[in-house]
Amino acid sequence: MTPPAPHALRADALTLAYDGRRVVEGLDLEIPDGRITAVVGPNASGKSTLLRGLARLMRPEAGRVTLDGRDIRSFAPKEFARRVAVLPQQPVAPDGVLVAELVSRGRHPHRGWFGGRSSDDDRIVAEVLEATGTAELADRAVSELSGGQRQRVWIAMALAQRADIVLLDEPTSFLDVSHQLELLDLLTESNREHGTTVVMVLHELNLAARYADHLVVVDGGRIAAAGEPAAVMTAETVGAAFGLDCVVTPDPVAGSPMIVPIGRFHRA
């Protein structure tokens, strides 16, 4: 398979606000191409807002986001969607839509004026349904599914888009631990097999450190630290950003940094 063309997604002096209240201010960030980036930070730190800015779901108050040197707001919707797939935190499915139909909507940016489905579309939809463990749900209404099942279906739709960049806001929400691992393995597989650039907001620090090539710590709407997990996920960084007293030790499975909280009752 031909690898995707390299892409440069970056934010320059980006400021994002809700009703005049600045949540992200003067932020600079470059997303490593062809790698997995995890964005972490305490609640209300601006990490989901940052992702919305990168996904052009919010108009900047100042600064800009560019893709290959071009302001993302200058792309036509289909043109942008062929390059960047976006899964927001709480997507809403149309009433009565079936799983297979929803997933097939991920192919919409690749269809011509008449919107007809091709054999490639059908093949890709079948592949992602199988890969996400949702093939047996294909003929069910999305509204009938559990939260975890729905989340996997939305992931399938995003992957069906076959965009070079995938932006996901808390994709492990509603999933139990085993399905969280399955999902992150699936995103890793897409990254390794298709060269997909993955950017995801995660709450679980140890999973972020294990699966990401590049970690971004957001605190107070600014970048507190960014780089490889081993360099970023230190006791000092975690303490400063999260107010968490902890020990950082190698993960016995992956060798990545593993955060062990201390708490008030287990100090040496």
TrEMBL record:
It holds the Pfam family ABC_tran. Residues 9-245 form the ABC transporter domain. One of its GO terms (cellular component) is plasma membrane. Gene3D superfamilies: P-loop containing nucleotide triphosphate hydrolases (3.40.50.300). One of its GO terms (biological process) is iron ion transport. One of its GO terms (molecular function) is ATP binding. This is Iron complex transport system ATP-binding protein. It comes from Agromyces ramosus. The lineage of its organism: Bacteria, Bacillati, Actinomycetota, Actinomycetes, Micrococcales.
